[in-house]
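cron nightly-structures :: item 1 of 1
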Amino acid sequence: MTQAPSAQAPASKAPSVRGAEVGRRIGVGLMYGLWKPRVLGAWRVPATGPVIFAVNHSHNIDGPMVMGVAPRPTHFLIKKEAFIGPLDPFLLGIGQLKVDRAIADRTAITRALGVLENGGVLGIFPEGTRGEGDFASLRAGLSYFAVRSGAPIVPVAVLGSTERRGRLIKGLPPLRSRVDVVFGDPFQAGDGSGRRTRKALDEATVRIQKQLTAHLENARRLTGR
């Protein structure tokens, strides 16, 4: 991702802001119907302008949970493997972005940058895939979007129960259990120089990881998780 692709996506292909708002409303109903979300720090999310949500990823509901409880409609970058059968038109219809993680997916990159250029919210799982959810291993994509766009990053910690009892599906918290979503203070990934070199992106990744790890630790202390 060292070369910046054009940030102009065809209008007909742009993710739908209206669709993302519909997705937010669907998420609200599902998440509050199946679990007990507790949202902390939502006031920290800038009310307008481009924002990147950097979300830890330990449960399959992390994306829908943030989409439902966030104060603004969110366009998540989601692996293409999730877009199967009827989920494909549904996810696209609610403004989500399909990305091929095996390549430098220029179409996904362009559309994601378009979200930020239009003053929207881009959601990213910087660890790339579901795992421990501790931000221990970050991919370069987050730093690229943050440095390229200049958008502030808002760290988001999703903390659910680790109990296996009551789980109907592996990877999901037990139904009706409490799930904490903690939004952190926005920060800039760049050093202010405007550099977009590989070295600048590597340095930005280090800064981002420190910020995200610190937020997760604070969120765990705050929630007792």
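cron nightly-structures :: done
The chain has one domain: 14-223.
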